[in-house]
């Protein structure tokens, strides 16, 4: 019982932790998100060309009516679309049998996999440095 409660608490707290780790003050994208989105060749670095390309891609995404400019409403819609995609992806990772429902077992299995993947030294404890080193966005779509 205690183990299930601990796992549930960790799983529920993780989305907030990751958003804090990857976002800069004021809710702006942080360094982790920038690297994830702009490092097109996956070498862990962003060249000027990758940076420029990433910025243009982001502009095009926000400018939903393709008029060469965006409004605050287009920014809001872009953020909402991104949140919805993230929400759906999180759900898909937990719904292991892909039946459109997450059972308690699937939820707990997902939590155990996440905890294990963060516990790099396998000591049964996740430290702040392990959380910082755990890069869920770099692990790709199949990550726990």
General description of the model:
The protein is mainly alpha-helical and 144 residues long. It has one domain (2-133). The protein is built from six helices and no strands. Helix 1 packs across helix 5 (104-118). The longest helix has 23 residues, at 72-94. It is flat, with a radius of gyration of 18 Å. Residues 4-29 and 137-144 have low confidence and may be disordered.
What's the short story on this structure?
The chain has helices spanning 2-22, 31-38, 48-62, 72-94, 104-118, 128-133.
Average residue-wise pLDDT: 78
Number of domains: 1
Beta-strand percent range: under 5%
**How would you classify the helix and strand content by structural class?**
mainly alpha
Overall, the morphology is: flat
If helices are DSSP runs of H or I spanning 4 or more residues, what is the number of helices? 6
User: Secondary-structure element order, as H and E?
Assistant: HHHHHH
Blueprint of the fold:
Elements lengths: L1 H21 L8 H8 L9 H15 L9 H23 L9 H15 L9 H6 L11
Distinctive features:
flat, 144 residues, disordered C terminus, mainly alpha, 0% strand
């Amino acid at each position: 019982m205690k183990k299930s409660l601990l796992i549930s608490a960790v799983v529920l707290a993780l989305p907030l932790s990751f958003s804090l780790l990857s976002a800069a003050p004021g809710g702006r994208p942080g360094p982790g998100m920038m690297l994830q989105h702009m490092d097109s060749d996956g070498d862990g670095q962003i060249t000027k060309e990758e940076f420029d390309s990433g910025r243009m891609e982001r502009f095009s995404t926000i400018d939903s009516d393709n008029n060469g400019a965006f409004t605050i409403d287009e920014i809001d819609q872009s953020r909402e679309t991104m949140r919805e995609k993230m929400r759906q992806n999180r759900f898909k990772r937990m719904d292991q049998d892909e039946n459109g429902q997450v059972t308690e077992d699937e939820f707990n299995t997902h939590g155990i996999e996440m905890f294990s993947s963060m516990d790099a030294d396998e000591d049964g404890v996740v430290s702040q440095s392990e959380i910082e080193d755990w890069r869920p966005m770099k692990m790709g779509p199949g990550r726990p």
